[in-house]
């Protein structure tokens, strides 16, 4: 039974993770929050105390940590006796934090793929470039590493596995749809780190279709979805982490990811991209200063966590799964709807952070209980989905199913 | 009789100035080009030699100079025995270069108002914030300083004066219209230094109407003009240097400036401005680097001088002047049409640089001849316009008149 959680990162998602760990600290034990800027960790600690989120009295502490520094991370894991590390820091630190976990035996979790700040990772499957190269060593050392266990990737991978297990004999297509129908009231803002957000859309769009990787450009393939609660929304085929693992684990089914974008977002994005302002490659100003344009765009945009207090509306994220059951073609939509305002009231973050931050806590609870303490590296679709969805159902992210039989909650015995 | 010209700056306008000085070096004497980056000056020298622009054999030299350094500028003026300084460097160096001219007795010229890099100059009349504070001292020292003698400001000021002298008993309104109907074939680019270009449009739009300053915001007031050669164009009321001097010198007439903008330019500008990327105030990146967003935008945009080889189409810039003549209301449009391709073939720069760079050379010729060597600080509308327009007519920027009597060339006896 692993216990004591070290949260790495201090943004909007870390805030959610901390609150949810606190609400379940009877299962999880002590909570430690570490990031480069210790003040941001302290603010999260204060928020957890203010909202009285701690279920029982455990240690709750803020730490300064450069998570690129493997030895410092190992030392902190040991000092805090953390059995579980939830990495919700920048996507650039994944491999360093994973290394520290492998060396100390702590369980590792993240919510997004590792990225090299200098490149937009181009070769599919993306996990093959970094994470999966450590799979063998994790197995040898008996270290549990659950990759991409936010909402998407994460819960949507569990939805795909649930569909495969319970609704189909053979899955032929998984279309993951992520719609944020909320409004933050700003001219323009990204819902999480702009640097990571834009990097998702500046590269090639990979999808897995007809048994091979297909490439498109961003905003090339659009589709109107009519979804529960949020209604009609325009979504575009986008490159996304989970396409890269599901392509391997869904027995050859097509896997595509669709993200909702308004015309205004697309216009701003297009202007910035065409001007070269989303580039991760440094440029030199007339005065000789070397600077990465994307980092300047990040600096002028609103801090995503500042959006939370005024965020209105809902998100709808889920999987349209097609395939065969008893020789018949069928389609199922497995989804969750989250509300920005509810999220802010409960944990002080908006809905996007909420959907990303609650799932790793559910996963931590399953590691603590032993059910998901698999002592190897896995993507979420390799794990039994029901225990995970069951906890999510109870701690804030209920699953619903819509198919020919209607629209209903997923039930647990 | 002043002689020998020192050109400060090495951009597209400096290139035009150098070529035109060379074509008239029998009147102007030696030509020196100075800028921070001596290589850029050398490239201009090479271009002048390649195109065999030198009318007679004179000294033609490149120099490295930080024009913010008054003592270094004075030393260069003395070393080169320059009687005339044409400042077409950054608008941030005007006051330093003017100081060097006042101390050495050289005649001073520029083509744009002085700017403090840290602020968007807000209080009208703009010349009153810097240049005009030196007017008394120029007079006492007998130093000739001609402010804003490019096309606009510059030639359009002479057009206003010509209208006042020859076409009206009383001028009631001057509407200056600047349309670039050319195309550079890039996604987006500015025609001169992006930093200066954008700074023109991020502040308050000042116009002089009904005997007082009126304020509007950029793109608030638009108007469709139907102009000779370039046809129908949408123009917007814009803040511009010459409004600030003409408001003082046109006996209370309304003075407005209108610049043509396509929808695409406006969209890109609006996105950049609303995001804060056109700000001249530094921001700090997540890594702690202090950087001025506008300087990064400048760094990613095409170098304006790189546009020249593929620039197609024409510019039309002129003054719609309204007023009374013999008790009757009348309107005159005094204008010039320039061609981007012709400009490139003649001097290796596009049309916008051409229209800005030819006029200061005409003014230099009038200082050399004594006609404009007025031994005080003036704006162009304070000088007799005909000698200036006569030279421009001969060296590449002919003036045309359109009114109830038709569309014709301005004639000189």
Automatic annotation (TrEMBL), chains A, B:
Domain Saccharopine dehydrogenase NADP binding positions: 5-146
Domain of life: Bacteria
Annotated SUPFAM superfamilies: NAD(P)-binding Rossmann-fold domains
Gene3D superfamilies in UniProt: Dihydrodipicolinate Reductase, domain 2, NAD(P)-binding Rossmann-like Domain
Pfam families assigned to the protein according to its UniProt record, in alphabetical order: Sacchrp_dh_C, Sacchrp_dh_NADP
Domain Saccharopine dehydrogenase-like C-terminal: 150-396
Name used for this protein in its record: Saccharopine dehydrogenase
